[in-house]
Specification:
By secondary structure, this protein is mostly helical. The chain is built from 5 helices and 5 strands. Strands 3-4-5 form a 3-stranded mixed beta sheet. A two-stranded antiparallel ribbon has the order 1-2. Strand 4 and strand 5 form a beta hairpin. It is elongated. It starts with a helix and ends with a helix.
Length: 148
């Protein structure tokens, strides 16, 4: 399961980055209240502050308990679109490398999330993938609006 999931995470991120770059010049630059930069910074920050440390803690056998994470109210002024995308790519690569080196036993270790309940490392990776997919859908809607 893990290798397929890691490949889906790689592909999903590549699609989000490519879609962002394609619509960057043509779009008014907003998806709802967020700019493309805000979305990229949100993704990078979520990976760095949420997904990576939580998965590392779970794999270490700490059985951590997590609250719902949100950085939706954060001000990402001062962050450029390109820097945010680069940071997200780097952090995702680091996370994938880390998980690739885990044993089956380490991947089966759990954390407990207030919203999602008990999750394995693979379960938390699936949340990261779903998060990517939610933002990809928003970018696809924006690209469709720009094309018409």
């Amino acid at each position: 399961m893990t290798e397929r999931l890691l490949e889906e995470l790689r592909s999903s991120q590549q699609l989000v980055v490519a879609m962002t770059r394609v619509i960057e010049d043509d779009a008014p630059g907003r998806v709802g209240a967020w700019t493309l930069r805000d979305i990229a910074a949100h993704l990078a920050t979520t990976e760095r502050e949420c997904f990576e440390p939580r998965i590392r803690s779970m794999a270490a056998g700490e059985r951590p308990e997590f609250e719902y994470y949100s950085n939706d109210e954060r001000d990402f002024d001062g962050v450029t679109l390109q820097n945010a995308l680069s940071e997200w790519v780097d952090t995702r690569a680091r996370l994938i490398d880390f998980v690739s080196g885990l044993s089956e036993e380490e991947r089966a270790r759990v954390g407990v999330h207030t919203k999602f309940g008990e999750l394995t490392v693979d379960g938390y990776l699936k949340i990261a993938l779903d998060h990517d997919q939610d933002h990809l859908k928003s970018l696809e809607r924006l690209a469709t609006e720009v094309a018409h």
